[in-house]
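Duplicate of earlier report; UDP-3-O-acylglucosamine N-acyltransferase input re-posted below.
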Amino acid sequence: MSITIKLGQLAEFLGATLRGDKDKDITGLATLEEAGPGQISFLAKPQYRKYLVDTQAAAVLLKPADADGYTGDALLVPDPYLAYARISHFFDPKPKSSAGVHPTAVIAEDAQVDPAASIGAFAVIESGARIAANVTIGAHCFIGVRSEIGEGGWLAPRVTLYHDVRIGKRVVIQSGAVLGGEGFGFVNDKGVWQKFAQIGGVTLGDDVEIGVNTAIDRGALSDTRIGNGVKLDNQIHIAHNVQIGDHTAMAACVGISGSAKIGKHCMLAGGVGLVGHIDICDGVYITGMTMVTHSITEPGSYSSGTAMQPSAEWRKSAARLRKIDDMARRLQKLEKAVETVTCADNRSSDG
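Output:
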């Protein structure tokens, strides 16, 4: 699929200041390094400014302060990266599905599927499920008993929704994601693990996006809840009864233990882990590979662990770390000795 749009139309859509030919055809997006005639690019970070001089882009999204000295066509905007994100959808080559049900799909008699929905090959929709208008369900998806998908949802091939999963509007779920699997609930009875039923469900708000192979477990009693606008990357695990506030985002390989509560507008970088039954307040940023072992009650940035070092230096640091208890004891003895000498000197001076 190809699309052509005038530079002036993009300027109007963005509310940008146009500098250049409003009738220039724009056919795609590219980086400053790789852009050619017909493609629009952007400058969002100072380290890429060196590519601006020689770029072959048809036009560039720029902050007004970055436009000085650039003689090519440009759209001047407060936030070039945000502007790029907004116009990227004009050039998205993702195939559009037509409304209707593929003849190989299996749909229960009492399932409700809106005529404007698109149901792909070999999809299964079980009893009592409800599929709203303009939903796309890819090939080999499974929609369990009583599960619901709100208007405009998009499920890539091989998404699994167990029973009683309720999804809001315009939700995007990528391949391999599993929502509503049983949570990890066991009780130890004299050395033998006894399973307890996970009788809750999963509830997602509107405009949620879920990445490839991410798992969201059903609640043990009440639902696991994901708020509006939450963005989850690939290979994330959300355990039972977790609650995630609106517009929180998590990068790949995050693991959230059961019954943790995460506030609104938080960001968790890759590989972050949370223990269960803790609360994270609104507006928290947690850096990559951090292990969160207690509640966070103040907004801000939090980190743990050790950063990368050359191997030889890391081995020395690790060796010192093993000696830290002994070093602490020696320091305490030294402090006491210094205190004793200081007290003796003070007594001598007084005498």
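The mean pLDDT is 96.

Merging into the original ticket.
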